[in-house]
What does this fold into?
Amino acid sequence: MKKILLAIAVTLAFTGAAQAITVQRLYLKNGSVLSGYIQKQDAAGNLTFASDSAEVCLAQDGVTIANEKYYASSELDKAWAEWANRNDAYEAKNGKQGLTLADVTSPSKNVLKVRILERGVVVKYQEMTPNLYVIPWDDVECIKGERRPKTQLSGINRIYTLKSGEEFVGQYAEENDSMLVLYLDNGGRQSFKLDDVVKYTFRAVNPNQDIFLQSELLDVVRDKKGSEIRGIITEQNYADDFFTVQQETGSTQKIPLGDIVEIRKEVNLKFQPIFDILLSKNEVAIDGTRVRSVHITEQGDNLVLGQFTPSVSAKCGADKTVKVTLQYRTEPGAAIDVFQLVKAIEKKSKKETSYSFSYRDLVNAFYRPTSVETSVNNITKAEYVIGEKGIFVFYDAKTRLAYPLEVK
It folds into this structure.
């Protein structure tokens, strides 16, 4: 029972597209690789795997390839076009790029419009249509998850507690029938013998975001009475034989291991990953857009902005305010309160319109960030609420760099 439940309660990795469900890769002993997620497993040890794409290997016996047809790139759907670009797989024909796709018939499954990768003793093909596969555990080589990118600031981590009392925290990386592996924050990996792990605890990576916004999938646990508990498994305790499920209402339910008949996965439609933006020194982003600094000329007590066209604009809402986000790189140990936000004074002449602000404006700056936080990538994010229209400037007095913003 322990091995069965391990496989269907893995912590999952984000692939970058909000609608994608490729959160695991299942490697089979025959060389096939399925990308998607384990939907459920029955008591007999058969996995039901919901694939988003698959590279399938079949022995030649009983396999036929038919209906081979060339499709121009304009005839391919988005999944095939992305695959062809990623794998440099386009074929040139009559001055156009495209792919030849075919149908494959085997004793176990018939598939349409796949890409043949190998012919001969083994038939290997690439499938880009979502599918369901029922696979015996004995056919599985291993299960892997992809490491989260550094820019992802949300997700689920796992804590392994060993018989020795040691605890290790990281992201799910891999498992097979005898071993578990975590991705560690320092960039390395930590492996464990399956039998040495007595408890798994799951926790949200971002403490400022609800766990139900950080998990790609939801768990549905069915007990012997037929009741179903939907939520996120936050603990698997094999020392005391129970699972803990956190429900979206905030309540938690402890379920004895012996009462569990089935655990399955569902796609979490509320999944909202948070991403960082990587910035170099003196590089600034306003509302996620990188902006260039504007030259400043000192004229008495005034700081005059050089000619510029605002690369970012924000529009006030019905309450006549707008929330603006400033992001910049903060070196470790340095002060994070780097910028001052001031409204520039507009001055028009027959030749041009200029904008400026004074040192007094900086001292008496009215706008202060409503929140400031720094990510693991040393990127500081400061949020401001602005309640008037005009040209505003984020100014760093130390570097004398100014970054304008237009509020409409």
Summary: The two ends are 61 Å apart (CA to CA). Residues 1-20 have pLDDT under 50 and may be disordered.
